[in-house]
Design goal:
Layout (H helix, E strand, L loop, with lengths): L13 H22 L3 H17 L2 H20 L5 H27 L6
Helix pairs in contact: 1-2, 1-4, 3-4
Length: about 120
């Protein structure tokens, strides 16, 4: 059985989740012309979440995963602003879902085995 090594960067690792948060941050930057400067706050939050995941800390990883689940729901509620806007929001949602799944797998694999 393989262990979750923080330096691993494939799917199912916290680092992969961090990379997905980087993708989400870039997509949020592309949304600035459509949604306004308030989108820069979401860029900052995505970068902070990615930095937390990059460290490999499991405790904050659970909180980041919960925040990502909520953020994905919020992003889905923003659909309907035009074709390009919706495509960018769809990309953000896909990046968030990739991060959620990867973080969940990493945290689940790394949990302590029952004795």
């Amino acid at each position: 059985m393989t262990q979750n090594i923080p330096s691993a960067s494939g799917f199912g690792s916290l680092r992969f989740g961090a990379m997905m948060m980087g993708v989400a941050a870039v997509l949020h930057l592309l949304l600035v012309p459509f949604a306004g400067l308030s989108e820069l706050t979401l860029v900052g939050l995505a970068l902070v979440a990615g930095a937390i995941l990059w460290t490999g800390w499991r405790g904050p990883g659970w909180l980041v995963m919960l925040a990502l689940i909520v953020a994905t729901g919020v992003e889905l509620s923003r659909l309907g602003g035009g074709v390009v806007h919706d495509l960018l929001i769809g990309g953000v949602v896909l990046a968030d879902l990739g991060a959620i799944l990867s973080v969940f797998v990493a945290l689940w694999k790394g949990r302590a085995a029952p004795t």
